[in-house]
Amino acid sequence: MYVFTCAGCGTELTAPVSRVALPVHTHYGAWEELHPPLMEPATYAVEPLPTGPPWRRWEEIGEDGAARQGVYAPVYSVSFGARNRIVIAPGDSRSMALIPEKCAGDCRGVDGRDGPNLACEGCGRAVATRRDDCGMWQTVWLEPDAVERRPSGLPAGPPPGWEDLEDAEHRVPPVEPDGSWSPRWEAALGVVLAHLVAVTGNRPVTLPAGPVAELLGHAVARRLPVGPVSGSGTAAGREAGLGREAGLGPEGELGPESGLATWSVGLAGPGIRTPRPRPDVLLVPRHPLTGDPWRPPGDEGAVVPLDSGVWAYLAHPGETSPLPATGVLPEGVLRDDYPLPQRPWRLLVADRHAFEGTLIRLPAVRHPRLRGFRDARRTT
């Protein structure tokens, strides 16, 4: 495990933390409500892309300048902030004090619009930004040029791996205790839909029967043409010209037209059998430590990464007993008497900001088949 210290005076600014993958919902969440911390205690993650101020207008920097910052479709402004900012849970911060004149926010907290708002208590140097306003996951972002990482002297626990995805504790339920949809699910769905649009070139898709179609079907239909729900793949489509040559190039760009009317989508990952024949696109989990997408051994077909906790719920949703129970109810068994568990009043939809924010960072958005998505951005 490591601690981060002030680069100016050496003051320890964090508790001991170990690195994990950056959550896919880091920059997205529901509006007008307070959020919990983004990071689990004693963990940190790194954002490789530019974030925060300063911002520059698209018209000022042009398409090539925006692409160098990782943005491939017109937006109002592009971040020229630091790369590789480090994010921790606020509870893991140490020896930092708020800078009062940089504590602007819209509602119930601070949003970091004015740059770093936390100073080292040892030397007064601005070292981090706290964000906890409405619609934001509670975070502290350490500036990469203001801190140094040093060993804490404490051993780290076993690093998270693929086997953790099968644990019940790793599953993220889609519904919150109050009966609303999980903001993490809504954000994860926006991210996965952006990747699906890019991979398929906005072609129709078929979803596998079961939890994927039941939970994601409505949201997918709002963004993509949808074919009938199917339990089988269309590997023959790849034999007719699909795959890396006709689907995605080595850098993620779209290839030539394949002529295939519908792309099949399947769920795959550790602990479950990959559908046969192989669907055209596999929904797979991101590794909880590295963030890399899972792939079947030797497979080079199209995959779309999904939040590992959301994927774990879709792959292992759990069961409730259909039989009467005596004594204490077993864990996981739902009561059928009043009051019933609360349920959402609407169908699950993707977070719009997560969808658009992800899509503009995929080079495939420049393909002519996705022009409609770019044109829609110009009118918003």
Order of the strands making up the biggest sheet: 2-3-6-10-9-8-7
Roughly how many Å apart are the termini?
44 Å
Helix-strand string: EEEEHEEEEEEEHEHHEEEHHH
Give the overall shape: globular
Alpha carbon gyration radius: 22 Å
User: Roughly what fraction of the amino acids lie in strands?
Assistant: 15-25%
Count of helical stretches: 7
Mean pLDDT: 85
Strand tally is 15
Low-pLDDT stretches:
232-260
Q: How many strands, which pairing sense, and closed or not: the largest β-sheet?
A: 7 strands, mixed
Backbone structural class: alpha/beta
The level of helicity is 10-25%
Labels describing this entry:
single chain; 380 residues; 7-stranded mixed β-sheet; 7 helices; globular
Explain what you see:
This protein is α/β, with parallel strands linked by helices and 380 residues long. 19% of the residues lie in helices and 16% in strands. Helix 2 packs parallel to helix 6. The longest helix has 18 residues. It is globular and about 60 Å long.
Topology:
Blueprint: E1 2-6, E2 18-19, E3 43-47, E4 55-57, H1 58-68, E5 77-79, E6 85-88, E7 96-98, E8 118-120, E9 126-131, E10 139-142, E11 147-151, H2 183-200, E12 205-206, H3 211-223, H4 235-239, E13 263-267, E14 281-285, E15 302-306, H5 308-315, H6 352-359, H7 371-378
Parallel strand pairs: 2-3, 12-13, 13-14, 14-15
Antiparallel strand pairs: 1-11, 3-6, 4-5, 6-10, 7-8, 8-9, 9-10
Helix pairs in contact: 2-6
